[in-house]
Amino acid sequence: MLDLTIDRDIVIDAPAEVVWRVITEPDQIVRWFADRVELEVRPGATGHFVFVADEQGTEVMAALAVESVEPPHRFAFRWSTSADGTLEADNSVLVEFTLTVEDGARTRLRVTETGLDRLAWSDDEKQRYVEDHRHGWAHHFGRLATLLDAGPG
Fold it and tell me: Which pLDDT tens digit goes with each residue over 128-143?
């Protein structure tokens, strides 16, 4: 049986309120994650992330639907690069960020992606997604840590 859960965490030397702002505000998200962001952080809002995928400037757009906003502890959204229409459990993946205070000035940030088991994809497609996103979150969390070590703008 495939392990389809993507789970990554990092401890960041910044208070939860700072980490929250950097993972939820579009002008901050573009500093560590997506190349362009259209997002309103409220339950039910829709938007998108745009990623430049290669040196030729090929763009990949991920549609978003915000599920939960609980500052500064939990932010969850559904996303998909292929779903048409409304993002639902059977055509998108749920991304959940949770923030836990480690001590006064440090925050554990965890991202979990779930719901691949509900998608009508082959096992090979699901496995490629898991591998790509596990690597991707490691890369982006590294960028986030570097950004916050330099001090958020």
Answer: 999 999 999 999 999 9
Is the model's pTM score more than 0.85?
Answer: yes
CA dist 106 and 51 (Å) reads 29
Show the DSSP H helices in the chain as ranges.
Answer: 16-24, 26-29, 123-150
Handedness of CA 35, 26, 81, 72 (dihedral sign): positive
Mean pLDDT, residues 92-98: 98
In angstroms, the CA 64 to CA 75 distance is 12
Domains of the chain: 6-150 (3.30.530.20)
- CA dist list (Å): 150 to 12, 129, 143, 146: 12, 31, 11, 6
Q: Identify the residue whose tokens are 């490691």.
A: 138
